[in-house]
Amino acid sequence: MSGSAPELNAELIVDSAVPLHPVISPDGRWVAYAVTTTGRREEHPTSALWVTAADGSSPPRKLTAGTANDSVPRWAPDSTSLFFGSDRMERGVRQLHRISLDGGEPETLTAWKGGISDHLPLGDAHMVAVVAEDEPTEEDEHRKIERDDAMVWGERVPYSRLRLLDLDTLQLRVVDGLGDRHVVEVVQRPDGGPLAVISWACPEIDPGTSTAELHVVDPGTGAVHDLGRIEFEASSPTWWSLHDTWRVAYLAVTPPGPVGGLAVFDVTVPAADTAGEHRNLTAGMAVCPTELVQVADGPPLALFADGLDTAIYRLDPGLQRFGRVSTRDGLVDSLTVSRSGEVVAALASTAYEPMDVHAGPPGGRLVRLSDTRPELRQIRWGTQERLSYKASDGLDLDGLLILPVGKRRQDGPFPLITLVHGGPDDRYADEFNLGSYPSGQWLATAGYAVFLPNPRGGTGHGHEFAAAVAGQVGMDEWTDIISGIDLLIADGVADPNRLGIGGGSHGGFMAAWAIGQTDRFKAALMGAGISDWGMQQATGELGTYDSGLSGSRGWEGPGPHHHDRLSPISFASKIRTPVLILHGENDTNVPLGQATFFHRALRHFGVEHAFVVYPREGHAIRERNHQIDRLRRTREWFDRWLGDPASDQNRI
């Protein structure tokens, strides 16, 4: 590469364009998608809609200006127009709009006070299924004015209900048969028949996601047929037919849950008012389904995490099992398919190519259609290697190593930073590792080697691998990580005296856990991490899931409890490693109290640390200036404690 290549900086990362929500037209000719920026400059995000030929025969063109948040495009059945959500009428409140494929001014279809959370154009072309909360009543408005806003659990709950929009009259009517169920997903049978609907008992993520039910709804009469309870984190209802009998498949966590990764389940839609058997169609597979998509003229397609890569599978109706169609290097996400099933579109990324929209036959080559980050092609990147190694108990593991820019293995040893992924039911695919969170290439351009491990508990290696951390979070996955670090030290890649560790969410927990188990690390980053599992179960969004990871609940009699043995706070007295703690003020997934508790413990024991809280932010940091601060602050932290690689005699 040329020595005059531009230098990577934080602004270039957070100002980059990012494609979202690709959707292929029913006729397979067009792909629409949204484009936004990584960092949000204003109070509300902005995004624009684009459309391009699915065969790459014409370049992408912009359909909307991008001055509002135009997102989630959905094609009309005749492929001539797009329905989409936008807050152009009132910022922060999404309404339904429609725009012609030829462009022009969008038509506003709803003016619902609470906004529209989801939409699905139906097959008769005169109706759209809409998911929206109840509008506030006059009493609600009066209470707001009078500041009589005491929050009583169970009262004035903002349920999202299934409503049907008549495109001729623009009138909305609610489907009453679902009662006080919170609707989360809707899909129509491909022949224009009934809707498959997933609902929760209430809008709260916990217990909502563990109280999911599957329904069949007749959009003409509003009649509802219940198919029974479905497993934890159910999503992606999908119709398919076997011997002229309709079935509904969906994704959910394998029982007994809630830890163990997703599986594809399936149930027959009977004529009588009964619920059939829900069968696991992916039992025993050594890969993990991540997405399930409906094909109008055939059986469903699915994306599977397959180690460091992603595979497309198709359901074999006769065997009622999934068979591999193709495998693509790196990450494939947001799969969408034409009516015939002959063309798919998706977001895809490989080691040195950022996420972009691709399309092609499911069993063939996917052609890149968008080019959202061309400015990154001039940057020098660190070499990204695939790793394969054994855990201490012999389990096969994988991961990635990114070398400092311009360096080879034999130029080591290098200061090594281990970045642990979130989840834990997630993974590192062999994709382009650059983002607004301190990422592999961001640190590699500063002279660090970066280890991206995939310990047990993650996706890509089947149910047993994912379920291995149930009730044992931080245990074997920690030894998996340290085994990889020791391998890199033995290979001469990592300097044992200059080791750092960090991560966000579950990765933040693992960083806090690691420094309570060993003093080998000279610096750590804890981003939105859990320090106390008991408190997390009490205040986090996913208490059921968190108790499944940590193995007990605080109300199970007097302690100490099992989860106390798995909480980093319990080992705070042993910590000597300097820690950078970063957290969003309004995080509801991992509440700020987790970071505050850890900060107080470190202060009590005199441990060097910095505690940074980002106002207005949730679990993900969205604002541009906060993202820039996080990138710079993290690199400066590691430079301070590991020694700035740029000052080494082996400088880049």
Automatic annotation (TrEMBL):
<dbReference type="GO" id="GO:0004177">
    <property type="term" value="F:aminopeptidase activity"/>
</dbReference>
<dbReference type="InterPro" id="IPR011042">
    <property type="entry name" value="6-blade_b-propeller_TolB-like"/>
</dbReference>
<feature type="domain" description="Peptidase S9 prolyl oligopeptidase catalytic">
    <location>
        <begin position="441"/>
        <end position="643"/>
    </location>
</feature>
<dbReference type="Pfam" id="PF00326">
    <property type="entry name" value="Peptidase_S9"/>
</dbReference>
<dbReference type="InterPro" id="IPR011659">
    <property type="entry name" value="WD40"/>
</dbReference>
<dbReference type="InterPro" id="IPR029058">
    <property type="entry name" value="AB_hydrolase_fold"/>
</dbReference>
<dbReference type="GO" id="GO:0006508">
    <property type="term" value="P:proteolysis"/>
</dbReference>
<protein>
    <submittedName>
        <fullName>Dipeptidyl aminopeptidase/acylaminoacyl peptidase</fullName>
    </submittedName>
</protein>
<keyword id="KW-0720">Serine protease</keyword>
<dbReference type="GO" id="GO:0004252">
    <property type="term" value="F:serine-type endopeptidase activity"/>
</dbReference>
<dbReference type="Pfam" id="PF07676">
    <property type="entry name" value="PD40"/>
</dbReference>
<keyword id="KW-0031">Aminopeptidase</keyword>
<dbReference type="InterPro" id="IPR001375">
    <property type="entry name" value="Peptidase_S9_cat"/>
</dbReference>
<keyword id="KW-0378">Hydrolase</keyword>
<keyword id="KW-0645">Protease</keyword>
